[in-house]
Design goal:
The protein is of the alpha/beta class. The chain contains 18 helices and 27 strands. About 1% of the residues have low confidence.
Length: 685
């Protein structure tokens, strides 16, 4: 074994958090891509800021806490927690600057060319529009606002996480050159951020709510003269930490932590440029922030609110053309669905294949008298999910319905509590996860009494049971009646809902007991074959590659001569292309109209061509802190379809970016070759 392939060698790992920041830069780059429709470019821009907010609320908050308690030590890349925080800040400032540049120099002008005008100055309003705005303020806004003075008797208020606020300096009109006062006004989140002005057939004009408030500050501060107005946003630590071993009621504990989420420690302050030093100092000290945690913003603060424009009516021509998902069954009823599943495992590639098949399967099962039991995991689901309705209906029809609801699904906790309680009210047996673990696997089991015997049908997926995200996440799932799979899924459900120990399955690999070991085993098997002079190959597609054991195994495989193709959308801590270490490893990242979400692992294995789908990325949290499932693709027809998918992904020369050994991503261009955007090409596979 190469002596460099050692977890203590900091030179062979990229820093996890900085790799994520690089992923977000790739999202911003799609906002610069002029071949994307203008509202899609705006959407990428908004997503990039939402990504940053969530990253700060969870990951940066965690690193910050380690730095404050001096418990962090050094990461795999050799950096201290404070070094990581400062490097994150450097990258964040560059990203915020680039976001503003793209917005003001490219996106807003092109939106105006498409008759969508964002008016940002009162001087640009017509007299009629000013009257409209004043009336809107009186009728909709004025009664909601609360001005908050900041002085020795009024300390800086505890401002809500991610809310938009105005920092205002004032002086008394009777002494305009006297003492400067400081006040804060929160922009109400219960009102639209952008108000459409009276209709004009030639152009649609919108005015920000904060500007409307600014126009009327004299109403809030009678007798005072407004000097300056600066928008700001505070991002707070929003991670939930629950001691499940000592809590008596998980729902109550999660609800309590959700309330705390809005008031966690500040981790970042976004503030408009040229804010007076005394305001910055006041806010910095009140929020206990470092200088590098303050981001000076050009123009619009809380840029992600611009997603409002993506949903405007009459803007279809400014977005990507819609892909019409294929519906597998000719006749959507219980009899035909179960008949087709019995004929052969059915593979779906979403969003190209309709997710409605899964919804219909549950709908008809809920009313099918032959269906006796339904078991399902729910990690994230959409707000108006037909799945929830079907599960309730099934229970009300007397079927045994068991649902594992993961209350700790980050930022979906409140929604999951609501649906879980509604399910319980309908007679569904709800299991609230597993102590110390998140139930992240995606499984559905249906037990049906048929003429010859009791049959089990399963649905397994790489993605959530969420009809909304199924339209723009790429995921792969299967429906199967194969007893090699269905029996193990049934056993796994029983293990999760009871005190049973996790068995070693013949076909499923389950975290936290066996999944990581199996992944490493399959990689090392390819390495052994390569050393014997046999053909060896590995393809792995995932969201993130962080786990050091998997990375070290891949390095060994590369050194043994195994060709390794990795398609990793987000974080990659492995360094590809290092001579004598990883020169046989290629890493691609594909960022496009769909969020690449499927996890697909392929090992050549002397021609057996083992294909696995999984709910898990190669990350310690997936391997050790979650219930995850990796399952094989057994039917040859489905294997062949996935091989076509892999070939197209590896042929992408439009949306793919290659990672080099220095951590830089280089975008591919078709040049003289035929342009292949894999996300478009896969529509026909």
């Amino acid at each position: 074994m190469d002596t460099r392939i050692n977890i203590e060698n900091t030179e062979i790992f990229f820093e996890r958090e900085l790799s994520w920041m690089d992923f977000n830069m790739r999202v911003i780059e799609e906002a610069t891509n002029k071949s994307n429709p203008i509202l899609e470019r705006l959407k990428f821009l908004c997503i990039s800021e939402s990504n940053l907010d969530e990253f700060y609320m969870v990951r940066v908050a965690g690193v910050r806490e380690l730095a404050q308690t001096n418990l962090g030590g050094r990461s795999l890349s050799g950096l201290t927690t404070m070094e990581i925080l400062k490097k994150i800040s450097e990258k964040a400032k560059k990203q915020f600057a680039l976001q503003s540049k793209i917005l003001y120099e490219e996106i807003l002008p092109e939106m105006e060319a498409s008759n969508i005008h964002l008016i940002q100055n009162v001087s640009d309003l017509t007299k009629y529009e000013i009257r409209f705005v004043r009336e809107y303020y009186k009728s909709e806004v004025s009664g909601i606002l609360t001005p908050l003075a900041i002085d020795t008797s009024h300390p800086f208020p505890h401002i809500l996480n991610k809310s938009l606020n105005l920092a205002i300096t004032l002086s008394e009109k009777s002494a305009p050159n006297g003492k400067i006062h400081f006040a804060v006004v929160q922009v109400p989140s219960v009102l639209p951020r952008f108000i459409e002005l009276p209709f004009d057939e030639a152009k649609r004009r919108f005015f920000p709510l904060e500007r409307i408030i600014e126009m009327h500050l004299s109403d809030l501060f009678f007798g005072m003269e407004v000097k300056e107005i600066h928008a700001f946003k505070i991002t707070r630590d929003s991670d939930i930490s629950i001691r499940e071993d000592i809590t008596g009621d998980l729902i109550t504990s999660v609800k309590k932590e959700l309330r705390n989420r809005f008031w966690g420690d500040a981790v970042r302050l976004d503030i408009s440029g040229n804010t007076p030093d005394f305001i910055r100092t006041e806010m910095k000290e009140s929020l206990d922030l470092n200088d590098f945690e303050i981001m000076e913003m050009r123009g619009i603060v809380h840029l992600s609110d611009l997603m409002y424009f993506y949903s405007l009516s009459g803007t279809t021509n400014l977005k990507f053309p819609q892909i019409v998902p294929k519906y597998y069954f000719n006749k959507a009823d219980a009899t035909s669905i179960f008949y087709n599943i019995r004929k052969n495992d059915i593979l779906f590639h979403h969003p190209y294949d309709s997710f409605q098949v899964v919804e219909d399967l549950l709908k008809y099962s809920s009313n099918d008298p032959k269906v006796l039991a339904i078991k399902m995991t729910l990690y994230r689901t959409s707000g108006d999910s037909p799945i929830i309705q079907s599960l309730k209906q099934a229970a009300e029809n007397g079927k045994q319905v068991t649902v594992l609801v993961e209350l700790k699904a980050r930022f979906d906790e409140e929604r999951n509590i609501m649906w879980a309680q509604r399910l319980e009210d309908s007679g569904v047996h709800v299991v609230y996860g597993v102590i110390g673990m998140k139930v992240h696997c995606k499984m559905l089991l249906i037990v049906r009494k048929e003429s010859d015997k009791l049959r089990k049908y399963v649905h397994l997926s790489t993605g959530n049971y969420n009809s909304s995200t199924a339209r723009y996440y790429t995921d792969i799932s299967i429906l199967s009646e194969n007893e090699k799979i269905t029996g193990e899924v049934a056993t796994l459900f029983n293990v999760i809902t009871s005190f049973s120990k996790m068995p070693r399955f013949d076909h499923l690999s389950v975290a936290p007991t066996y999944l990581r070991d199996d992944v490493v085993k399959y990689i090392m098997r390819e390495a052994a074959h390569a050393r014997e002079g046999k053909e060896a190959y590995i393809f792995m597609k995932m969201n993130s590659l962080v786990d050091p054991d998997v990375i070290l195994a891949l390095y060994e495989a590369s050194c043994a001569g195994v060709k390794v193709d990795l398609v990793i959308r987000g974080i990659c801590c492995l360094k590809p292309g290092v001579a004598g270490l990883s020169e046989n490893i290629t890493v691609r990242s594909i960022i496009g109209r769909f969020l690449e979400h499927s996890r697909l692992y392929y090992y050549f294995n002397q021609g057996e061509k083992n294909l696995f789908l999984t709910s898990a990325d190669c990350m310690p949290r997936n391997f050790y802190k979650r219930i995850e499932v990796m399952f094989p693709i057994l039917a040859e027809e489905n294997k062949n379809r996935i091989f076509k998918i892999i070939d197209i992904i590896l042929s992408d020369n439009v949306k793919a970016r290659y990672l080099d050994s220095n951590g830089e991503y280089t975008k591919t261009y078709p040049g003289d070759q035929i342009a292949i955007d894999s996300q478009l090409e896969l529509e026909n596979v």
